[in-house]
Amino acid sequence: MSVHGLADAELPAPVATIAAPFHVDYTYVAGVGRSVYLRGMAEGRFLARECPGCGQVYFPAPEQCARCLVALLSPSEIPGTGTVSTFCIVNLPFPGQLFTPPYVVGYLNLDGTGTKLMHRIMEVEPERVSVGMAVEPVWAPPEEWEPSLASVRYFRPVDPALRAPLPPGSARGGRDA
Ligand SMILES: [Zn+2]
After folding, report:
1. End-to-end distance of the chain based on CA atoms, in angstroms?
2. How far is the CA of 59 from the centre of ligand 1 (A)?
3. Residue 102 and residue 112: Cα distance in Å, rounded?
4. Any bridge partners for residue 88, and if so which?
């Protein structure tokens, strides 16, 4: 078979990838629901909200319950402790990566909530992280609190026996570690 008179053997190799850099300016609007959580982060507090219909407690909370579509109740503070629901050990580098592998990212069940929060788990050897492990937040110094989850540097095991020193160069344990 031929295309435009060229035999298959004469066709160039297909283009598999192209470099197409582009820049997008955007403004992120958190909305009323997410603003509660973000302002709490700036105050060093975990602010959750409960659905009056089904009782689901959200952190971070949207404006309305995803199940019932009703407005959530006023914010209430939760301690921020929780357990590991699932986790992965990141061993591979990738473009734009903020941290140096290996590091652990977990889905956490915060106590008093029915939702999951994704965050890093540090101060523990990756191979000692387990599902169900109790964790607690490690906050940045108050002068660094901001309306972002970055106010919480990471989570660590509640059990001191599971803890390990932070790796060299990650003393801050934060975004620029
Ligand atoms: Zn509900």
Report:
1. 57
2. 13
3. 30
4. 105
State the Rg of the chain over Cα: 22
- State which H helix or E strand residue 41 sits in: helix 31-42
Which residues are CB-contacts of 164 (< 8 A; sequence separation ≥ 6)? 123, 124, 125, 128
Please give the distance, rounded to the nearest whole angstrom, from the Cα atom of residue 71 to the centre of ligand 1: 9
Scan for tokens 């060093």, then name that residue.
44
72 C-alpha to ligand 1 centroid (Å) = 8
d(CA 115, CA 56): 8
What's the 87 CA to ligand 1 centre distance in angstroms?
A: 27
pLDDT digits (tens, 9 = 90+) for 40-71: 999 999 999 999 999 999 999 999 999 999 99
Region label for 83, one of left (φ > 0), alpha (ψ between -120 and 50) or beta (otherwise): beta
Spatial distance between the Cα atoms of 162 and 130, rounded to a whole number of angstroms? 11
Q: What is the pLDDT of residues 115-134, one digit of tens each?
A: 999 999 999 999 999 999 99
